[in-house]
Structure formats: C-alpha cells, structure tokens
Design brief:
- InterPro entries: Fatty_acid_desaturase-2 (IPR005067), Ferritin-like_SF (IPR009078), RNR-like (IPR012348).
- Homodimer.
- Keywords: Coiled coil, Fatty acid biosynthesis, Fatty acid metabolism, Iron, Lipid biosynthesis, Lipid metabolism, Metal-binding, Oxidoreductase.
- One of its GO terms (biological process) is fatty acid biosynthetic process.
- Pfam families: FA_desaturase_2.
- It contains eleven helices and no strands.
- The protein has one domain (about 5-305): Ribonucleotide Reductase, subunit A.
- Helices cover about 70% and strands about 0% of the residues.
- Helix 6 (about 150-175) crosses helix 10 (about 250-265).
- By secondary structure, the chain is mostly helical.
Length: about 325
Amino acid sequence: MTRVLTQLELLRELEPVAEANVNRHLSMAKDWHPHDYVPWDEGRNFAAMGGVDWEPEQSKLDEVAKAAMITNLLTEDNLPSYHREIAESFSRDGAWGTWVGRWTAEENRHGIVMRDYLVVTRGVDPVALENARMEHMTNGFASPNEVGMLHSVSYVTFQELATRVSHRNTGRACHDSIADKMLQRIAADENLHMIFYRNICEAALDVAPDQTLAAITDVLKNFQMPGAGMPNFRRNGVLMAKHGIYDLRQHLDEVVMPVLRKWRIFEREDFGTEGARILDELGTFLEELEKQAVKFEEMRDRSLARDAARRERTEAAS
C-alpha cells in the first residue's frame, strides 16, 4: 500500500519546484499600474461633494456586463480570505512564503482597478456595490474542499483558469475598449498564477500520484467558483452563463480538460490500485459533466430563442 505523505512532507518535497516556479513567474510577470487603465477624465463628484449621485441611465453597461463586472469584482474583493487559505495550506517560509506574498500583492491590483473603473465611469451603483462588498467580505470565503496542500493547489489551478476565462469574456461583454484592455491585463495575471499552481500540482502527481489524483478528483466533483456566497450570485451567475461569460461548456472545454490533458492524467501509468479506482471515478464524472453541458446548451438555446421572439413581438407592436 502506498504511504500517504503528510502536509509537511509534501511541502518539503515540493519546495524546490515552488522555488523554481516562483523564479519563473518573476521572470515572466509584467509590472503594471491600475491608474493606467482608468479613464479619469470621465469622473465627477457625487452628491456628498456637491455633484450628482448615481442614476441607472448614467451607466453604459448592459445588464449582462453589470452582472459580470460586479461578480468578478466582488470575487476579487475576498482576497484576505484567499490569502489566509493559501498561507495556511502552504507556508509563510521559504519559496512558499515568497509566493503567498507575491500572489497576494498581484491579486490586490485586480480589485483596485476594477472598482476605480466602475466608480469613475458610473458603470454600476456604487452604494449597492459597497454594500455587497461589505456583506461578501464579512462572510469571507471557506474552501468547499478538504483542508490541505493538495486540495488547495488543485482547486486554485482550476479556479485561476476559470477566473481568467470569466474576466476575458467580461471584457468583451462590456463593449468598451478601456474595460476590455483592463480585463485582458487582469486575465494575463490569472493565467500566470494558474501556471504556477498547475506546475506544482504536476510535480505533486510525480511525488504522490494516488494522493494527488484523489485531491484533484474531489476538487472537480465539488467545484464552485469562489464568489458562490455573494449577494445575487445565483441571478448574476445565470445571466453570465446564459450570455457566454462563464458556463458549464466553458468550464469543461476551456478549464477542466486542458489542465487534465496537460497533466496527461489518463495516460499516466504510475497510479496504484486506489489511484486506478479514482481514475475510473474521474472518467465517469467527466462523462456526466459532458451530458450536463449538452443539456445546458439546449436549454440556453431555447431560452435565447424565446427572448429573441419576445423582442421581435415588442418591436413589431411599437
């Protein structure tokens, strides 16, 4: 029977990989400044300083773009909880500690620039946004998975890539070149973060194949985005899925499968008896996920067709 490595043993075994990937990240990451991505000349005072408070007609964003921007920003706002999670799962020493600090500093820019953009352009109600931030951050974030290094690194691998896809599609949905450029910049950060975690997880598969596969499978079967507990998440999530910001098909085809292929999960020959059983479990889960994605696409197409027909009737009547 394969021995299960402790958290401390895993961290020690994988620290050289973490150090190499921290150095790789630092060599590839590009410094950027949030203030360079905000159209400051569009800004004006609110009523408290003699100006005018927000009204819905001031926003250039449609309902889909608003929902996506709010969801993505509130997700970024929970950074203190994410920092705590990875600091507890990894370590604050050596390469692990360097990564935790650097990752946190880079992620913090995302919330800064998105909020500045939305407030300056009056894209969403700033009072409602602040109230939602207070509620969401007060509730915090707790991982839906077991506590531990392998579950954490597996989760953030998929989550960072999912966030990249969501940000990139949100930029397009805003129909604003400034927002698109800003969210492209954020998405590039998320991609580099994903690569760090993906490489750590790949090394963990070599060190503890069955143990790592169990964590990956558990994460995928229980996966949910980190914003799941925020106000209006269900409503906004449905809007985002319906209009191609982030849906089940994208989750499967653009997030889950590319990572599993990179790890060559179904080609590996180093799994033991338990690993082979878990691999079958993962394969069954992915087949079911494919069926769910097809079902979702059919439902979405019918819904969009009904919406289009309704618009046509309204336009004809007017």
